[in-house]
């Protein structure tokens, strides 16, 4: 039997001139693409750290897909107002809630205010984080260690525990971890440790909520160009940020947000306990 033998897959045809006439082609080329569908119509999404960076990109993309948005943030009021403007351009509502996620009372309040405002909660995105580079483990003070863990992982517990009072079957929880959870980071040991904890939190919570049909997944971004970068590193490091990954550049927040949309929508109904890796090509086997 002859291998790789060509077989007709459309009627024989030819045209006598370039560049050709599309209307004469059989079958007609497909040009309309898939129907543009709003994947989150009527839903409400809460995003911690949604004022800028990845959080802003998620908020705007989710708004384009029909979700109302609640954003909690610390003190970056101008960034938050800009995000609200961009979200509301999409014809949905946006609630801004400023406060300190390290405080359990604020986490509870922000979830309760979201539900009071919109009447429901469908998607919880635990995204807020801080990082404080140190060249030596000995330089990580007790205060820094406490702040990093309280912000990056304790707040996820506080928000999720409160959100579970309102999430129902079909709801989703998406946590932001990091490539550092998989490959480590010599100068971000406490930060990477919290991100590793988030991976374990995601996998454990997904198992705990599977019977309730609430899916829990995470996204592990690599180097992404967000305000956290110039706020963390010196000028030279910032100028080179992201150049060491296979794609040789830092990613943009808009390149990460679709991972969250996928996990929040019905496109991923058979996925829970999983981590997506928009990281510029690093192989992390996670």
Describe the protein's architecture and organization.
Keywords: Oxidoreductase. The protein has 8 helices and 7 strands; from the N terminus they run βαβαβαβαβααβααβ. The chain is globular. It has about 290 residues and is an alpha/beta fold. The mean pLDDT is about 90. The chain has a single domain, classed as NAD(P)-binding Rossmann-like Domain (Rossmann fold). Strands 3-2-1-4-5-6-7 form a 7-stranded parallel β-sheet, sandwiched between helices. Strand 2, helix 2 and strand 3 form a beta-alpha-beta unit. Helix 1 packs across helix 8, helix 3 runs parallel beside helix 4 and helix 4 packs parallel to helix 6.
Summarize the structure.
This protein is 36% helix and 11% strand. The chain contains 8 helices and 7 strands. Helix 2 links the parallel strand 2 (68-73) and strand 3.
């Amino acid at each position: 039997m002859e291998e790789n033998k060509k077989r007709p897959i459309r009627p024989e045809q030819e045209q006598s001139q370039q560049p050709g006439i599309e209307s004469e082609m059989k079958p007609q080329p497909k040009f309309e693409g898939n129907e543009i569908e709003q994947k989150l119509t009527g839903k409400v999404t809460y995003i911690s750290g949604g004022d800028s960076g990845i959080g802003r990109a998620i908020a705007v993309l989710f708004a384009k897909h029909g979700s109302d948005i609640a954003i909690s943030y610390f003190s970056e009021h101008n960034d938050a107002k800009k995000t609200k403007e961009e979200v509301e351009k999409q014809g949905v509502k946006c609630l801004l809630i400023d406060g300190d996620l390290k405080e359990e009372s604020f986490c509870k309040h922000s979830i309760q205010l979201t539900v009071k405002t919109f009447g429901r909660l469908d998607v919880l995105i635990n995204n807020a984080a801080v990082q404080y580079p140190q060249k030596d483990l000995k330089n990580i003070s007790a205060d820094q260690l406490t702040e990093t863990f309280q912000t990056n992982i304790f707040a996820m517990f506080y928000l999720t525990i409160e959100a579970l009072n309102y999430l129902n079957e079909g709801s989703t929880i998406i946590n932001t971890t990091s490539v550092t959870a998989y490959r480590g980071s010599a100068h971000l040991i406490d930060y990477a440790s919290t991100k590793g904890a988030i991976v374990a939190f995601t996998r454990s919570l997904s198992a705990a909520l599977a019977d309730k049909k609430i899916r829990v997944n995470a996204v592990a971004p690599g180097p992404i160009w967000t305000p956290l970068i110039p706020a963390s590193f010196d000028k030279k490091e910032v100028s080179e940020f992201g150049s060491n990954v296979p794609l040789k550049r830092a990613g943009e927040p808009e390149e990460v947000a679709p991972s969250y949309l996928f996990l929040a929508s019905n496109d991923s109904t058979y996925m829970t306990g999983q981590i997506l890796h928009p990281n510029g090509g690093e192989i992390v086997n996670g």
